[in-house]
């Protein structure tokens, strides 16, 4: 068990080191997020009060669509020099590959959120007055669920011919319950409503995370297994 | 002389890929410290045979026993003992040679990784390039680093799939020297090669794999000459 974790950390460390060296994926994701925010800030007049209603949705649009850019690269990058075979032939559990990839993807998406969400608030002229703790908790729970499912599907679709197209087509329907909960909870946190109302959504998100985490961890082995 | 232990034993391995029978009834054994070369025409199933042994593919039938244990997909302890050099280098292009070795060293739980990596890099002649991302490396440099990667964990059995491809004369000599050193320390070696000269200098025994079957094996023992071995290969592959 401990070795699974330490192997996962090694793999995540390798991915992040490689990413921070080139900054290829992360800069693409940040630029994409910035462009989405910019386009939407033109489309809706930020001075209009009703616009505040689109912010929770935008937070998740940015996360999911920028995230998909990163997820696409997550396993296709292992295909250079057939590195995935190198991992599979090594003395490690398939679970550590999955966990390592989840950790790395989660870190990258979180960094993109750290940059883009403040920018979103600024451009939409939104002043955050709610509870930051709850907001962060909701964002983390939603992002984690997205990464858990996304990493699994990115491994699944990496071998397909049109993996960049296959991933969103598989991923978005599966994410819908999570995203409904995430948007609702985010809205409650941002509008500074009674936070009690968000707790039920947060519970739903946690249940989704746990359920899919267990399923993906167990099934990942079968993706890694050669025919 | 004491009886050497069997390092690797394949019992009636068959492998289907799709609806094609790639390996048919392969039975083979490899003793500790022995070097077996597998030769054969392209597409004979040599690489598939290796992948089954490493545990990357599950054989459709038969059993593989490595160092007394049955190879199944989930056996980290067994994979630890295998050094597998495939067609591809398994190296990360964005990382430097040192980072690549460190990464694999950690996965293989190698002790004293930094010292060993540095030593290996010196040995394969890449020490000067230790901090350059390997994206810019030539085929031969990659192969040198791939060899270093395989040696890092000090495996009990080396499985080299066409290790000489892309190497220059100097590197071929280097690789042969490394292999011979490993032979002395009792490492078992399986080697796939199309280069008869190297096969002849390195192997104790040669097996011909043709259309998924081991059609013949011969003991070299330093008695059989290179020309004689080539004749034998041609006769076996062309005939029947
Ligand atoms: N994934 C696969 N699916 C179906 N057939 C395959 C697959 N991989 C290899 N083959 C077939 O298996 C045969 C043996 O391939 P291989 O083991 O790579 O040969 P070689 O002896 O040249 O290394 C070839 O005919 C190849 O077409
Ligand atoms: Mg081959």
Automatic annotation (TrEMBL), chain A:
Task: Provide this UniProt record's keywords sorted from A to Z.
Answer: Cell inner membrane, Cell membrane, Cytochrome c-type biogenesis, Membrane, Transmembrane, Transmembrane helix, Transport
Q: Where in the cell is it found?
A: Cell inner membrane
Span-the-membrane segments of this chain are 26-44, 50-71, 102-126, 132-153, 165-186, 198-220
BP GO annotations: cytochrome c biosynthetic process; cytochrome complex assembly
GO CC terms of this entry: plasma membrane
Annotated GO molecular function terms are:
heme transmembrane transporter activity
Function summary = Required for the export of heme to the periplasm for the biogenesis of c-type cytochromes.
Name under which the protein is recorded: Heme exporter protein B
Automatic annotation (TrEMBL), chain B:
One matching Pfam family, short form? Answer: ABC_tran
Domain of life from the UniProt record: Bacteria
Q: Where is the ABC transporter domain?
A: 8-236
Q: Which PROSITE patterns match?
A: ABC_TRANSPORTER_2
MF (Gene Ontology): ATP binding; ATP hydrolysis activity; transmembrane transporter activity
Mind telling me which InterPro entries this protein's record contains?
A: AAA+_ATPase, ABC_transporter-like_ATP-bd, ABC_transporter_ATP-binding, ABC_transptr_haem_export_CcmA, P-loop_NTPase
Gene Ontology biological process terms from the UniProt entry: cytochrome complex assembly
Stored Gene3D superfamilies: P-loop containing nucleotide triphosphate hydrolases
Q: Which UniProt keywords apply?
A: ATP-binding, Cytochrome c-type biogenesis, Nucleotide-binding, Transport
Annotated family: Belongs to the ABC transporter superfamily.
Q: What name has this protein been given in UniProt? A: Heme exporter protein A
Name the source organism: Mesobacillus persicus
Lineage of origin: Bacteria, Bacillati, Bacillota, Bacilli, Bacillales
């Amino acid at each position: 068990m401990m070795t699974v974790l330490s192997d996962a950390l090694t793999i995540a460390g390798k991915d992040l080191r490689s990413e921070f060296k080139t900054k290829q994926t992360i800069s693409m994701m940040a630029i994409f997020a910035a462009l989405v925010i910019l386009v939407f800030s033109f489309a809706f007049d930020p001075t209009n009060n009703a616009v505040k209603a689109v912010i929770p949705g935008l937070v998740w649009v940015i996360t999911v669509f920028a995230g998909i850019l990163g997820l696409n690269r997550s396993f296709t990058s292992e295909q250079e020099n057939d590195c995935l075979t190198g991992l599979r032939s090594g003395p490690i559990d398939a679970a550590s590959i999955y966990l390592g990839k989840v950790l790395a993807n989660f870190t990258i998406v979180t960094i993109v959120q750290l940059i883009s969400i403040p920018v979103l608030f600024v451009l939409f002229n939104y002043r955050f007055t709610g509870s930051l703790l709850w907001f962060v908790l909701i964002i983390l729970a939603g992002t984690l669920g997205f990464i858990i499912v996304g990493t699994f599907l990115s491994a699944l679709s990496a071998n397909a011919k049109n993996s960049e197209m296959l991933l969103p087509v598989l991923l978005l329907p599966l994410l819908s319950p999570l995203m409904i909960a995430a948007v609702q909870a985010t809205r409650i946190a941002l509008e500074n409503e009674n936070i009690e109302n968000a707790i039920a959504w947060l519970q739903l998100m946690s249940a989704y995370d746990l359920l899919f985490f267990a399923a993906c961890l167990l099934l990942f082995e079968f993706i890694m297994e050669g025919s | 002389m004491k009886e050497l232990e069997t390092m690797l034993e394949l019992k009636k391995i068959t492998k289907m890929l799709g609806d094609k029978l790639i390996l048919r009834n392969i039975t083979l054994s490899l003793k500790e410290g022995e070097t077996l070369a597998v030769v054969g025409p392209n597409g004979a199933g040599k690489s598939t045979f290796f992948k089954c042994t490493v545990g990357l593919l599950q054989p459709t039938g038969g059993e593989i026993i490595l160092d007394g244990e049955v190879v199944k997909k989930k056996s980290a302890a067994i994979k630890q003992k295998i050094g597998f050099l495939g067609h591809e280098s398994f190296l990360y292009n964005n990382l430097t040679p040192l980072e690549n070795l460190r990464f694999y060293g950690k996965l293989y739980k190698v002790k004293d990784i930094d010292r060993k990596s540095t030593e290996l890099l010196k040995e394969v002649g890449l020490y000067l390039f230790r901090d350059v991302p390997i994206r810019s490396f030539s085929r031969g440099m990659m192969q040198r680093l791939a060899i270093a990667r395989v040696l890092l964990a000090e495996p009990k059995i080396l499985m080299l799939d066409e290790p000489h491809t892309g190497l220059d004369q100097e590197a071929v000599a280097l690789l042969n020297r490394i292999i011979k050193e490993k032979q002395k320390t009792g490492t078992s070696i399986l080697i796939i090669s199309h280069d008869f000269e190297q096969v002849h200098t390195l192997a104790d025994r040669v097996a011909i794999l043709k259309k998924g079957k081991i059609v013949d094996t011969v003991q070299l023992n330093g008695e059989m000459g290179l020309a004689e071995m080539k004749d034998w290969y041609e006769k076996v592959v062309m005939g029947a």
